[in-house]
Give the backbone structure.
Amino acid sequence: MKLLCISGSPIRGGNTHHFIEKALEIVHEKDIEVEIIELAKYDISDCIHCDWCLTNSNPQRICNIKDEGEALLWKIRETDILVLGSPVYFGRLTGRLSSLVDRTRPMIFSKPHRGIMRDKVGVALCVAWGRNMGQETTLISIVSAMMIHEMIPVSNYSTGSIFGAAGVTNEDELNADTKNRHVVELDSYGIKGAQALMARAIDLAKRIKRKKVD
């Protein structure tokens, strides 16, 4: 089973990446192949709606734009569980992550890749400056993209992670520690929710795989 995590932060090794790592601490199965990708390390262009993918996508190429996004699209295509994490920027996901999401358009419209994400399991994560600062709108933007692909986003009511899990880097906005790039690890409530979502995602993906075999 493949579990692909993508951090949409422009900062390498920052709080969003660390929040994903904390969520993955509950993953112990040896048969689960885990990969974390930081978009900060990639050069990805925007989708320009050239419609090349509608008629020209093929088993060897998904998108006509020749950049590092193509390799990521193949990784997304082949994964069983997709985790998308983003810092909260003005109540929404980052432009960097949005560009990648837009580039998955061929997986909806192109003939050889159409519907490939259907019934894959999705996890939405985000990290914000403080409480009530755009977490849910950011998570919903991620979950909406997953639903458009007919994926199955997981939730966990008992941990308050209804649309996904949110970490907080600063409970006291007036006395922020801007130098600590892993301060999200102090948010035990957010981490608990992220780990609960990861556990649910793995369980659901396993059941989907068993059903396909049966």
Helices lie at 15-23, 52-56, 69-78, 95-102, 106-109, 135-148, 188-213.
